[in-house]
Amino acid sequence: MDIYVVTTFHFSQTPASISYHASEREACIAAAERVNAFRADLDPVSLSLVDGDCWQLGLAAAQLVQLAVFGLNVTDVDVSKLADASGFDVRLEKSELQGMTTLALDDRERSTVLAALRGYQRHHCPSDLADTGSNLGRHKSLSPDAIDDLCTRINCDTPFPVEANIVVTLDGGLVQGIAADRPITVRVVDYDVEGADSGDLVMIPRDQGEPVPASVSGWAVDSVCIDPEWIANVDAACASESRATALMAGA
C-alpha cells in the first residue's frame, strides 16, 4: 500500500520530523504547514501563508530569504543546493508501507485465498471469472508466474492486525489530533447544535429514545496522521512503563 511521507529538516533540530499520510493531498497540506512555519519564523509580514498546491514554491522562497539573511548572493546559488545552503528543507516522498495489505486475513481465510488462486492458475476459468480477473478487460489477468509470486507474498507476509491502532492526543482536556497505523475514517458527532443551520443537521439514532439532531463532520481530515512507527514507539513506551510498575510492585 502506498503512503506519502513528509520529512522536515532543520539544522537546529535533530532528528528530522517525519509524518505519514494516506493521500498525496493530505501530504501536500502537511508539507505546506511545515513550510509556513519556516516562513513565519523568517518574515511573517512579507512571507505570507502558502497552501498545499504551491508549498514547493513557498519553500524555495523561504530558503532564498534565509540565504539573504546569511548575506549570500542568491543569484549565484544552485537551486538544487538551496536546502544545504539555507539549513532547512521539506520533502514529500511516495513510499510503500511495508507489512500492510488492504485485507487482514486469518489463517483460514489465507488458506482459502491461496486455494482459489491455485485453482484459477491451473484450470481454465469460465467467462464470468475471467471478466472478474481482468476487471472487465481493464487490465490483463495475472499470468501463472505472477500468481506464483502473489501466493508467495500472501503466504509470507506478516499478518496485519485486524484492529486499527489509533492514538488520540489531548492537551488541556481537548482533542488535538489523531494518529493511526493505517488509513482511517473518523467522524465527529456534535450534539451542541445551538446556532447551527438546521439544513446541516443530521438525525442521529440512539439506543434508547428518539433520534436527536446533531452536526456530523469529518475529524480534521487533513491532520489525521498515518504514523505506524510512532504508534509502535508509544506502545513500546507503555509496555516498558507497565513492566517497571510490575517490578516495583513485586519488590
Record keyword descriptors for this entry:
three-stranded antiparallel beta sheet, three-stranded mixed beta sheet, 3 domains, 39% helix, 251 residues, alpha+beta
Would you mind describing this structure in some detail?
By secondary structure, the chain is of the alpha+beta class. It folds into three domains: 2-96, no CATH class; 107-156, no CATH class; 166-239, no CATH class. Helix content is 39%, strand content 23%. It contains seven helices and nine strands. Strand 1 (2-10) and strand 2 (13-21) form a beta hairpin. The longest helix has 23 residues, at 228-250. The chain is extended and about 70 Å long.
Structural class: alpha+beta
Total of DSSP H or I helical runs spanning 4+ residues: 7
Beta-strand content: 15-25%
Number of strands: 9
Instruction: For the largest sheet, list the strands in their spatial order.
Output: 2-1-3
* Overall tally of domains: 3
Quick overview of this protein structure:
The protein is α+β, with helices and mostly antiparallel strands and 251 residues long.
Which secondary structure elements does this structure contain, and how are they paired or packed?
Layout: E1 2-10, E2 13-21, H1 24-42, H2 55-69, H3 82-86, E3 88-96, H4 107-122, H5 127-133, H6 144-156, E4 166-171, E5 174-180, E6 187-190, E7 201-204, E8 212-218, E9 225-226, H7 228-250
Helix pairs in contact: 1-2, 4-6
